[in-house]
């Protein structure tokens, strides 16, 4: 049995998606997946160091990884109405934030890439774990913060105000769904093995969607938010048809995001396919 390292985040959509693969609920075709659960920015950094066989990464990070990693068609997070939010303690304009400190969930996150595309004038940023950002804004440690994951559903409880929904901006700007994160595999594993892995990931997604309650205990072991309602909202938003297969418009969205990032000088230009 061949063992492969599999990185994914502690967020409910990822633990939901990979539950069946790591708990023997689907046939893994004589492959054993050794899970590495970390914050998405930590996974981005591990992929940059070429440490993992396959892993969830931000699409921003993927822009730096295309030489060594290919994108799998299944398991990713794309969609509509699911983008990062810039939040603050009080109503303010983007111009008022120009010289203020902004908390971000990591410099390789898609959230930060979108902020750079939307408001490149915001230069003073500080990275911190995503689950610390809302407290930092609430306590006036920063003027505003980029909220991702379940924070999209809970920022109101911190008394915070939405300044801009960057996913909404992206959709109006491009007409495409927003690509947030994808599953990548080492190109050195070979095309045949990576296609096999993609089929297993797809089956894992389909299993979870057909047995929604079964992964719940596993999800709660790792989630920052234990409310059943929030967990359900989170999974419903981030696990969808694009998680089963990226599809034609999903491919277009990824290529458009990477192209805009290249044109903005945020990621290096790269030749070749993303898959």
Task: Give an account of the 3D structure.
It is built from twelve helices and eleven strands. With 275 residues, the chain is an alpha/beta fold. The mean pLDDT is 94. The strands form two sheets. Strands 1, 2, 3, 4, 5 and 11 form a six-stranded mixed β-sheet that branches. It has a five-stranded mixed β-sheet with strand order 8-7-9-6-10. The longest helix has 20 residues, at 191-210. The radius of gyration is 18 Å and the shape is globular. The chain has helices spanning 12-22, 40-48, 59-62, 110-118, 133-138, 151-154, 166-174, 191-210, 216-222, 228-238, 241-244, 247-263, and strands at 2-8, 31-37, 54-58, 69-71, 77-79, 85-88, 102-104, 125-127, 144-147, 161-165, 178-186. Helix 1 packs across helix 8 and helix 4 packs across helix 7 (166-174).
- Largest sheet properties: 6 strands, mixed
Number of helical elements = 12
Q: Enumerate the spans where pLDDT stays under 50 for 5 or more consecutive residues.
A: none
Approximate shape = globular
> Share of helix among residues?
40-55%
Structural class by helix and strand composition? alpha/beta
Number of strands: 11
From the alpha carbons, calculate the radius of gyration and give it in angstroms: 18 Å
Straight-line distance between termini: 26 Å
How would you spell out the order of helices and strands? Answer: EHEHEHEEEEHEHEHEHEHHHHH
Mean pLDDT: 94
Beta-strand residue percentage:
15-25%
């Amino acid at each position: 049995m061949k063992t492969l390292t599999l990185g994914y985040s502690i967020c409910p959509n990822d633990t939901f998606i990979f539950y069946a693969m790591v708990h023997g609920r689907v046939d893994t075709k004589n492959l054993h997946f050794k899970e590495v659960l970390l914050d998405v920015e930590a996974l981005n950094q591990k992929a940059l160091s070429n440490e993992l066989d396959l892993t969830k990464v931000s699409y921003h990070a993927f822009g730096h990884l295309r030489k060594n990693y290919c994108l799998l068609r299944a398991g990713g997070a794309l969609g509509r109405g699911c983008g990062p939010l810039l939040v603050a303690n009080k109503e303010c304009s983007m111009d008022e934030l120009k010289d203020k400190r902004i908390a971000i969930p990591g410099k390789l996150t898609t959230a930060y890439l979108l902020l750079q595309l939307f408001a490149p004038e915001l230069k003073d940023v500080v990275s911190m774990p995503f689950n610390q950002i809302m407290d930092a804004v609430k306590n006036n440690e920063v003027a505003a913060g980029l909220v991702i994951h379940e924070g999209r559903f809970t920022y109101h409880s911190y008394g915070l105000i939405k300044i801009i929904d960057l996913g909404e901006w992206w959709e109006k700007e491009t007409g495409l769904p927003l690509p947030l994160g994808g599953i990548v595999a080492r190109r050195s594993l070979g095309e045949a093995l990576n296609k096999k892995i993609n089929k297993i990931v797809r089956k894992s997604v389909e299993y979870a969607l057909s047995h929604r309650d079964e992964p719940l205990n596993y999800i709660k072991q790792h989630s920052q938010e234990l409310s059943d309602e929030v967990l359900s909202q989170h999974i419903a938003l981030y696990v969808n048809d694009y998680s089963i297969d990226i599809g034609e418009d999903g491919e277009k969205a990824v290529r458009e995001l990477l192209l805009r990032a290249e044109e903005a000088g945020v990621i290096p230009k790269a030749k070749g396919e993303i898959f």
